[in-house]
Structure formats: structure tokens, C-alpha cells
From TrEMBL:
GO biological process, one term: phenylalanyl-tRNA aminoacylation
Keywords on record: Ligase
Keyword Disulfide bond: no
GO molecular function terms noted in the UniProt entry: phenylalanine-tRNA ligase activity; RNA binding
Domain of life of the native organism: Eukaryota
Residue stretches making up the B3/B4 tRNA-binding domain: 29-71
CC terms in the record's Gene Ontology section: phenylalanine-tRNA ligase complex
Name of the protein described by the UniProt record: Phenylalanine-tRNA ligase beta subunit-like protein
Residues passing through the membrane, by range: none
């Protein structure tokens, strides 16, 4: 069955006791956060539902990692962390991160994940103190 966004939220309010408590989070919003693919198939209506279309199985090879939040800075940090940690489970096959362009409700566009890094210079003493171990440098 196909729904428009208002019909979908009304359906969940009337028919789904598990999802019903979350509907109020976005119900009065002038726009809804919708994640859909290139064929306009809805993958998610965060934070309400994830679609059957995007369910992960043991045979899944391509995964969309989505992250929604009220605070954009925190969302960027969480997404970058999840993307990096996800690579731990992909060591037996090639791992590729494909960035996406997000169009905001105001029309602005951003590329995510950011995956920013910075160079840090630290002393061996700092490392030893924080790890609680000593290290002897061999020359």
C-alpha cells in the first residue's frame, strides 16, 4: 500500500502501538526527514521507521549508514565514527565509502561523511602517562 507522509503518520497513530509514541516527534513539522534511493523508494522516515527495502541480511553487500539528529555537529561526529568503525567488519573484502550529497530544506547542499582529520604532535611521555605503560625506544 502506498501512503503520502500525512497518511503514513495517521496510519501509525491508529494502527501501530510500537511506533505510535514516536510519531509526535515529527508530526507537526512543516517538512519530514525522508531518506529515499535513486528510484524514489523510501528507505527511512527517521526517527519513525526504517523500510523493509533497506533491511540488512547476512547477504547484504551495500549498506547505507544514515544518521539523523537535532544537532548537526553531533550527527556529523556520529556518522564519521560509525563509518570508520564499520570498516572493522569488512576486513575480508574491499571496503569503499561513497559520499552522498544531502539537500537541506533551505536548498543548501552538503557532502557527507566529512571524515575530517587533524595532525597531532604528542610526546612519548604523554603516551606513556595516558596508557599507563613504559616504552623503550630502540635506535
Amino acid at each position: 500500500r502506498k501512503f503520502n507522509s500525512k497518511e503514513l503518520l495517521e496510519y501509525y497513530l491508529l494502527n501501530d502501538e510500537h511506533i505510535k509514541p514516536y510519531v509526535s516527534i515529527i508530526q507537526d513539522s512543516p517538512v519530514y526527514p525522508v531518506i529515499y534511493d535513486s528510484n524514489d523508494v523510501v528507505l527511512s522516515l527517521p526517527p519513525i521507521i526504517n523500510g523493509e527495502h533497506s533491511k540488512i541480511t547476512m547477504n547484504t553487500e551495500n549498506i547505507l549508514i544514515e544518521c539523523t539528529a537535532i544537532d548537526l555537529n553531533r550527527a556529523v561526529i556520529v556518522l564519521d565514527t560509525i563509518v570508520c568503525m564499520f570498516s572493522e567488519y569488512c576486513s575480508n573484502r574491499p571496503f569503499t565509502i561513497e559520499p552522498i550529497r544531502v539537500t537541506q530544506s533551505d536548498g543548501s547542499k552538503e557532502i557527507y561523511p566529512k571524515l575530517k582529520y587533524r595532525m597531532e604532535m604528542i610526546t612519548m611521555k604523554y603516551i606513556e602517562n595516558n596508557l599507563g605503560i613504559g616504552y623503550v625506544l630502540h635506535q
